[in-house]
Amino acid sequence: MKRVLIVDDSAMIRVVVKKTLSTMGVSDVVEAEDGLKALEQFKSQEIDLVFSDWNMPNMTGLELVREIRKLNTTVPIMMITTEGSREKVVAAIQEGVNDYLVKPFTPASLRAKLEKWATA
Predict the structure, then answer these.
(1) For residues 97 and 77, is the Cβ–Cβ distance under 8 A?
(2) How many C-beta atoms surround the C-beta of residue 111 within 10 A?
(3) pLDDT tens by residue, 88-110
(4) Do 88 and 80 contact (CB within 8 A), yes or no?
(5) What residues pair up with 4 in beta bridges, in sequence order?
(6) What does the alpha-carbon distance between residue 22 and residue 94 come to, in Å, rounded to a whole number?
(7) According to the 3-state scheme, what is the secondary structure of the chain?
(8) What domain count does the chain have?
(9) Does residue 18 carry a pLDDT above 70?
(10) CB 38 within 8 A of CB 32
(11) Side-chain half-sphere of 84: how many Cα atoms within 13 Å?
(12) Domain residues for 76?
């Protein structure tokens, strides 16, 4: 695991994800507060794992997933969101999301998801 992109309009969520990654030895983290900035980051450097919120200004997480999938079909993408309905989960997976974590989450549940992808 080299570089992780964390995309969330909540600075607090970005801090929690970043701290959890840090406890797992992942220190190369790039942050963005919306999908547009995230897409710029994704295009400008190699990213190995993406964590994205669903509801953000300027470009939603689902729109970001669509754009990333046009550029890269294999990078793991995890959606971290309050949108936990079955329809939303199915829609996200159909767009190319690899995994899903519903807010509010515990550091333990985040760590379990991270371990699944951070070792890939």
Answers:
(1) yes
(2) 16
(3) 888 899 999 999 888 888 888 88
(4) no
(5) 29, 49
(6) 30
(7) CCCEEEECCCHHHHHHHHHHHHHCCCCCEEEECCHHHHHHHHHHCCCCEEEECCCCCCCCHHHHHHHHHHHCCCCCEEEEECCCCHHHHHHHHHHCCCEEEECCCCHHHHHHHHHHHHCC
(8) 1
(9) yes
(10) yes
(11) 6
(12) 4-118
Two tokens, residue 43: 């295009």
Spatial CA neighbour of 41 closest among 49, 30, 53, 56: 30
The mean pLDDT value for 74-83 works out to 89
Output the domain CATH number for residue 103: 3.40.50.2300
Closest to 12 measured CA to CA, from 79, 108, 105, 111: 105
Residue among 110, 98, 97, 103 nearest 19 (CA):
110
Radius of gyration from C-alpha coordinates of the chain = 13
Give residue 93's identity as a one-letter amino acid code: I
